[in-house]
Structures are given as structure tokens and as C-alpha cells.
Amino acid sequence: MFSTKPFKAGQHSVSVTGSLRLNEEGSSKFLQSNQSEFFNNIIQAFSKIIPVDQQRITTNGKWKNDPTSPNKVLLSFTINEAKDAIEPNSKTIFDNLGTLVEKKGFTALSINEYTSLIDESASFVITQDYFGKYLPVIIISLVSLIILAILYFLARWKSPEGRNFAIFETALIMQDLAVDLTFTLLRVNNTPHLIVPNMVFLIVPLIVNFLLAINIFLSEVDTNPMFFTWVSELPTLLLPICAIFSSIDILAINTLTSNLFGLKVFSAPLSQRSRKIILWGSFINIFAEDIPQLIIQILYYNSVETYDLIPSLVLISGGLVIVNKLILRSYHAIVRWYHRRDKIRNFIRRLSAASIRSLRSNV
User: Mean pLDDT across the stretch 181-209?
Assistant: First the structure.
């Protein structure tokens, strides 16, 4: 006796690709016949025997000789992800098909003209071609890194004293938003219980960051003459654009003070008050946005059977953002501590000098 998993709504699973091995007779027949038709006949048989909608099982038509048994052929099949919660997930179908193959002699696979040619001694195994599947993402990532590196060295050449690493910080902020939105649009619906928390910890921080940015800009324009002069020399629409951009992350305002490329637009003279707001705003963001989203990704991982690239990128991006903010927060805290220490030392020195002069004058 054997059993397969019951088809019921459960954890979501993305598409799964695996390979089946034909026995020697089947391999010979496959090589001598119309291969596309051979694939289609096997898929039709699978859909009836499992049973499952035929659209859930597809193939890219790829095959190869088994390295461990050159006389036998490996065929590639993909179990597509379910379109709704009623359908069985792809991992369940994959596992059930694997069980049917292992017990072929006791199932309907053994009496079908095509599925009877499957070699039951070889399991139905997952064979994801990650490089081919994610090649566009890899290329885009490499090109982006090269462009960022070129911009960084150009910025250093144009303005060595500028905080040129802001190029990478800004890029990290932008890509973090991009992967968060991609996850929200394409993946979070797979886990209905995470939809509301994900939206809350995505939208609320955006609103808070936007309000902080507006507060900083309006306060600077009103109380900081140097900032007002800086703004008046820039295009009219630039300030609203900067405010919207800063809603992604309040740290983005630091880009305007980085003196990148020695350009006027990146030399905003912010007051100490605004710098403190940015610093504490970024610190609050860690607990109000970054850590909750990281927790959501962990919950998502535990709620699905297969974990693909998009949530992986969100997880990596979130981790990088948190590390970057903690390092930046620590750096500024150390700088402020040294600054205060120097001020105290200078005050003590002046006080000591004044005391000595007072004593001498009394003598």
C-alpha cells in the first residue's frame, strides 16, 4: 500500500521543475519518435492519473542523457503554481507524482503506453536551473553595480571631500523600496494572513517619513537663511521631488548634504536640528519598518513550501538596510561623542586658564 498527499488548500508553492528518467526501452522510443508529441502524451497521462488540470504540468522540451546511465534519458517537467487557494499547490502535486513514479508497478502509470516507460528506480527530483531562470536579474544587478562604481569614482574625482558613499546608500534605499513593492504586488497574496501587516508596515512608514521630510524642509526654509538661499537657487519642482523621495526613507535627505560631484543640488546646508531628526528618524524606521518587514519575511518563509527569488531579495535587502542604518547610527553617535568630549575639554582648559589668570591678578 502507498499513499499520496490529499489535495487540499494549504501552503503556497511556486512552480517546481524536476526531471524524470525513462528506462532503456523508453529512452530508445523517445529518441526515435516525435519528441514534442512524446512529452505531450506523458503530460496528458499524468493529468488523468494524478489527477490534475493539464495546464498545471508543462515542459520546456529539454532532455539529456543521464550521466549515471548514458543509455537512459532524463525529461524535464514543470509543475506550475496554483492560481487560487482551491487548487493543490505545486509541491503537493510534485510529491504525489514522485510517489506514483516510485510505486509505478502498482499504479495506473504502469498500464499507460507512455508512462509505463518511466524508470521507477530513479526518483522524480527537483532540477531548478537557477542561473538560466534568474539570468536577467543577475545581468541587471551586475550592470547596476558597475554603473554605481563608475559614478562613485567619478564623484570622488570631482569632489574628493564629498560624502560619495551616499551613491550606494541612495541605491540601497531605492532597491529596497523596489523589492518591497514587488513582494507586495506579486507574492504577499500567497499568504492572506500577511497582507494587512505587510501593507501597514509599508505604507505607515512612508507617510511618517514624508511628514518628517516636510517638517525638515519647511523648518529649514523658515529658520535657516543659508538653506533658504540654497533652495531659491534650485529649480522650483526640486524641493517637492526631494520631499517625495525622502518619504521612502528619511535618510535619503542626507544625499542632499553629501556634496556629490561638487554640485550645488547636493550641498544643502542643514541645521543641527534637522540632522538630529534625520538620525532619530532613521533609528525609528529600523523598528517601525525594517525589523517588522524582516519578521514578515520570516513568517512568509514559514507559510510557503517553496521560497523563490523575490522574497529572498526582500530578506537580503532588509538585512542590508538594517546593517547600514546601525553602522551609520553608530558612526554619528561616535562622532557626536567625540565632538562633545572635545567641547568639554576645551571648556575645562578655558576655565582653568581663566582661574589661573584670576589667581595671578589677585596676587
Answer: 88
CB burial string 100-126: b at 16+ within 10 A, e below: bbbbbeebebeebebbbbbbbebebee
User: In the chain, helix, strand, coil percent, each to 5?
Assistant: 70, 10, 25
Residue 199, C-alpha cell as written in the block: 501593507
CA 128 to chain centre: 20
How many angstroms separate the CA atoms of 113 and 153, rounded?
A: 65
The per-residue pLDDT for range 69-96, each reduced to its tens digit, is 888 999 999 988 887 777 888 888 888 8
Say which residues have a Cβ less than 8 Å from residue 48's Cβ, sequence separation at least 6: none
Sign of torsion over alpha carbons 161, 164, 166, 169? negative
In this structure, the number of other CB atoms found within 10 A of the CB of residue 292 comes to 19
Q: Which residues contact 46 (CB under 8 A, 6 or more apart)?
A: 52, 57, 77, 97, 115
**Domain ranges (residues) in the chain:** 16-126, 134-352
CATH topology of domain 16-126: Alpha-Beta Plaits (3.30.70)
What is the C-alpha to C-alpha distance for residues 96 and 98, in angstroms, rounded to an integer? 5
Distance between CA atoms of 163 and 278, rounded to whole angstroms?
Answer: 16
Going by C-beta distance under 8 Å and a sequence separation of 6 or more, which residues neighbour residue 344?
A: none
List, in order, residues 6 or more apart from 210 with CB less than 8 Å away.
243, 244, 246, 247
Upper half-sphere CA count for residue 126 (Cβ side, 13 Å): 13
CA–CA separation, 276 and 36 (whole Å): 66
Q: Which residues pair with 63 in a beta bridge?
A: 75
Three cell numbers, residue 275? 540632522
Distance CA 353, CA 358 (A): 9
pLDDT (tens digit per residue) in 277-327 = 888 888 888 888 888 988 998 888 887 766 677 777 888 888 888 887 777
Helices (H), 187-308: 195-223, 225-232, 238-246, 272-285, 291-303
Single out the residue of 184, 195, 30, 8 nearest to residue 96, CA to CA.
8
What is the Cα–Cα distance from 361 to 89, expressed in whole angstroms? Answer: 91
Which residues, 6 or more positions from 164, have their beta carbon under 8 angstroms from its beta carbon?
Answer: 152, 155, 156, 258, 260
